[in-house]
Specification:
Elements lengths: L1 H12 L1 H7 L15 E5 L5 H9 L2 E6 L11 E3 L12 E7 L7 H14 E9 L7 E8 L3 E8 L2 H10 L2 E11 L2 E10 L19
Parallel strand pairs: 1-2, 1-4, 2-3, 4-5
Antiparallel strand pairs: 5-9, 6-7, 8-9
Length: about 210
């Protein structure tokens, strides 16, 4: 859980600045129509939560600390590998800029948990050279300071982790926000999952 604590403290330190810096959403809901109920995993604040609320009838925003969820919206505190929701609670889980904060040994578990609570998952990560979960440390120095830890995943890494978790990747590609290129994966659940099914689930991204 060190990775979750590191991410929580880094983003708590820059919560207001991060919100101000995210004025344009990634159009992840434009990829396909997934239903009416969405989970905004690792929501943060900024344009993305409002964009998802405009795209779905019902949205719950979920992040690691109260400072990181949008004010005045349905929200919960959560960690990506242990979501506090019942099976099939959502039609789709949007994990925008979340999974690149998770080390390889828990990436598969995060996909499996998302597929337990939602039928579909739309995940994005920063597109950086390399892959296989290589570690990058990226400092933040605007209206505050923080050291963010990133794990580099290729499209193949995302697809392999999703397959190991019981998902079926149906779309892989890239989208741009400003100067930053983001890789995305759209994953559908192959069969209905229950929390008890995940006890022995693979947790690593197998592709290298």
């Amino acid at each position: 859980m060190d990775w979750a604590l590191a991410a929580r403290e880094a983003y708590r330190a820059i919560a207001e600045a991060y919100e101000a810096s995210r004025r344009r959403p990634l159009p992840t809901a434009d990829i396909a129509n997934f239903g009416d109920k969405a989970l905004d995993l690792g929501s943060g604040r900024g344009a993305q939560p409002s964009y998802l609320e405009a795209s779905y009838k019902y949205v719950v925003h979920c992040d690691l600390a109260p400072e990181l969820v949008p004010r005045g919206s349905e929200a919960a505190l959560c960690e990506a590998t242990a979501l506090p929701f019942r099976d099939d609670a959502f039609d789709v889980v949007h994990a925008v800029a979340v999974y690149h904060h998770l080390p390889p040994d828990v990436l598969g578990a995060a996909f499996a948990e998302a597929l337990r609570v939602g039928v579909a998952v739309v995940a994005t990560v920063w597109s950086l050279p390399g892959g296989g979960g290589a570690v990058r440390r990226v400092p933040w120095r605007w209206r505050g300071e923080a050291l963010r830890v990133y794990y580099v995943y290729s499209l193949r890494d995302l697809a392999s982790a999703a397959l190991a978790a019981g998902g079926r990747p149906v779309a892989l590609g890239y989208m741009r926000r400003g100067r930053r290129l983001n890789a995305f994966a759209v994953v559908l659940r192959r069969k209905k999952l229950k929390r008890s099914d995940l006890r022995g689930a693979p947790v690593g991204a197998e592709a290298r």
